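Trying the structure run again after the queue cleared.
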Amino acid sequence: MAQGISVEAFNIKHARERFKGMQERAKNPKTTMEVIGIKAWKDVISHFREQSGPDGFWPRLSASTIKSRRKGKKKGGPKILQDTGRLRMANRWKIVDGGFTVKVFNNTKYAKYHDSDEPRRGSLPQRKFMWLSPELESKFAHMLVEYIAE
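Done. Tokens:
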């Protein structure tokens, strides 16, 4: 008899079952995407509280803007992009693409002038609020991998 080695597949049935489960979870990540949607939405809302964009703090309010602001019982001075709160409160999220994508959006008519590179009226400075914190992007990828590999 010739000299040789043998390789035996241990627990192959268990491995097949596990891969089948992973494949099924990869086909329907909706539950995890819902958690991601809520976290992404909360992150966008936090940018209003922090008054910051991906490159740092938003440009200060001009003296004329501060003067024209509503007077109320607010403490701490005027908040940037939050005179009425409409822009901040109009942020929403939804699951699209058959459950594979979360979209955070703001459908106020003037959101695009603050957040995008679209031409702005007058001297309106750009104040990006629709962005994800880098640590969350990484966390979302890990959440999906953990869900699929359960």
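Helices lie at 12-27, 30-50, 63-68, 86-89, 111-115, 134-149. Worth checking whether this holds up in the mutant runs.
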